[in-house]
Amino acid sequence: QAFFCLLLCIPWGSSCPPSCQCTERAGAKAVLCSSQHLEEIPKDIPRDVVFLKLDANSITRIPSNAFRHLSHLEEIDLSRNAIEKIDRAAFTGVAAGLRSLDLSGNRIRSIPKEALLALNAKLRLANNPWHCECALQEVLWEARLDLDSVRDITCHTAPREEYVGKPLLQVLDAGANFCSVRQRTTDVAVFVTMFGWFAMVVAYVVCYARHNREDSCRHRDYLRSLPSAQACAE
């Protein structure tokens, strides 16, 4: 009975995921899961964790609400994984308190800017095969990036061949603006749409006028065919 009572008294938040080590650093709980061949983020991370190390694993995705229940979380290390996809709501629930997020050394080509711009954390994004685009440019301008790692954010692919292999910061300093390319594309799409509507209106007006003219001609011919019209003509 005493054993079962002890189990009931232990909060679930104090459990430790298999293959991980739970310890304390300066009075704050740390969960260390480095180099454990993990393929996804553990589900049973203690709720009171402050420092979470998941580096050097085989994690491929950060799904929505992956850390939502970890309201005390301040630092996440996800470096040296195989992350390719990050959902828009990946960091929902921890955005306000997170101070550090390391995503360096993964396979990230693009990322929803909403996932990062809501964070106050210092970000490490270096050594990923980035596709240089507007969203990444906005992250570089607006997010809190770790200054030491900014120079290692390199364009693995880009809209123009001359940018490939160059640091994103260097490309932007040279005058490139990936967001203006998207804006021009949007402007062209709007122009084409407006031109299409204008052409439809013109075609309708022309058809309407032609139809009215044909009706008028038929009405005039009908009046001419009446006996009274013929008598007046005589």
TrEMBL record:
Compartments where located: Membrane
Domain LRRNT: 15-51
Main subcellular location: membrane
Gene Ontology CC: plasma membrane
The keyword Cell cycle belongs to this UniProt entry's keyword annotation: no
Keywords linked to the UniProt accession: Leucine-rich repeat, Membrane, Repeat, Signal, Transmembrane, Transmembrane helix
Residues passing through the membrane, by range: 188-209
Protein topology in the membrane: Single-pass membrane protein
Annotated signal peptide: 1-22
Entry similarity comment: Belongs to the LRRC3 family.
Name recorded for this polypeptide: Leucine-rich repeat-containing protein 3
